[in-house]
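Example record used in the benchmark description.
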Amino acid sequence: MAQTEGARLFREAWIAGVRRHFPGEPKPGYVTPWDDTPRWEREAAGAVYAQVRQFVEVSGGTTARLSREQKGRFVATCRTARMCRHFEDPKPGYAADRPGLPTRQQETDADVFEAVERSLG
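Model output (structure tokens):
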């Protein structure tokens, strides 16, 4: 899968997870369609997709045995690194460790990991 396709897969999985786990109507920025997503967010989505893909590949597919908590933690850590790279002083919510994230975001991160796993076959 090309980098752009992977970034789009990440974003689509993110939006699906937000819609599934967010109580009520999510903020528009949480579900912005790909074509309207800012460039830096597209690049971050592509980078995190690539990190998850590589992790799944080097594990020989054994990531299927990880818990959803472990999968979500991996995505959250990768995403936090991208936020710190993009923002000099990111908002606390952008750089929070997984236990500090709302449950809806923890679940969405795990959904994203699992979507990448499925895409790899």
